[in-house]
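Re: the 380-residue chain
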Amino acid sequence: MDNLETSQEPTEATTNPENTSSSKRFQKTRIALFTLGGLICSVFSGIWVYQHQTHIYSSDARISAEMITISSEVSGRVTEVLVGTGHQLVAQDIILKVDDSQAQALKAEIEARLATIIAKKNTLHAERLMLRAQLKARRNNQLSALTAAEAAVNAARSNLSLAQQDYKRAQLRADKKMISRQAFEKAHAVQLTSNEAFTQSTAQVSMAHAALAEVEADTQQFAVLASELVELDAQANEVKAQLAHQAVDIEYRILRSVQKAIVDDVFVAPGERVSKGQRLALIHDPEDLWIKTNIKETAIRHLQVGASVEISIDAYPGETFTGSVTGIGHSATSAFALIPSPNPSGNFTKITQRIPVRIDLDRQGYALRPGMMVEVKIER
C-alpha cells in the first residue's frame, strides 16, 4: 500500500501544473473579454452621449397632412356617393350628391317668371315700335294738313282781299248809278262768300295745329312705356339674381374635391339625411405631407428653423430619410387642451411640457399616410 501511495503522488504532482496553466489562461481570457466589453460599452456610451449632446431625439412624431373636411352647405337627403376610402381625386371630382329635386323645381319656376317678364318686355318694345310708326305717320299727315290749311288760308285771304276791293268799287259805282243793283248785290255776295271761306280756312289751320299738338301729346306714351320697361328691367334683374342664387344652391348639392387629394373616409351613405354644416367626408393631399413632433421644452432652446433632421419611419425600417425644421410652435401642446386643468387643491406635479415642431421631408413619393409613427434626430 505504501508503494502504491508513493507511486500516485508523482502523478498528482505532474497534473497540477497543467490545471494551473489552464486556469490562468481562462482567467486571462475572461479578463480580456470583460475589458473588451467594457471598451465596447464605453465606446457606445461615448457615441450615445455625443449624439445626445449634438442632436435632439424624439420618438413622439407622426406623419401629418392638412386634413380637409368636406361639409354640406345645405340640408337634404344624400342621393349618391361616388367615392370611398382611398379613392384618388383630382380637382372638381364629385364626391357625393344631395337631393336637388325641389331646388330644380324652384329653378324652373323662377325661369318661367323670367320668361314671362322677358315676353312682356318684348311686347312693350313692339308697342313702342308700332306707336313710333303710327305717330310718325300721323304727324306727317297733320303736317301736310297744316300746310294745306295754311295754303288755303293764304288763298282765302287773297280772295277776300280781292272781293273786298271789288265790293268797295261796286258800292261806289252803285252810289253813282254806274252799275245795276244786281251787279252790286253780286259783288256783295262774293265778298261775304270770300270772308266765310277765309274764316273756314283759318279754322282749318287751328284744327290742324290742334291735331298736331295731339300727336305731340301722344308721344308722351313713349315715356310711359319707357317707365314700364325700366320697371320690367328691375323685375328681370331681381329674378335673375334669384335664379343665380338658386343655381348656387343646386351647385352646393354637388360636393366636389377642391384639389388633388385622397379620400380618408366618407361618413354618410345614400339615403341618409344631412344638415347644413355636417361633416360628410375627409380628404388630404398626398403630396403635401410633413412630420409633426413634440420636443421637450428643455431642448427647444437648442432648436432653430432650418436645422437638418434624420428621419426613421416605422413603415420603412432600414431606410433613412432627411428633412429640415420648418416651423417651431409658439405654445406648448397643453395650451390647446380642450379641458383646462386648474389646480384648486394646491397639489401640483411639475411635468415637462412639449412644443410642437414641423419638419418637412426632402423627398416625397413614398406611400406615406397621416398618422404613421416616425422617429427624428434633429441637429442642434
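Confidence is low (pLDDT under 50) at residues 1-15.
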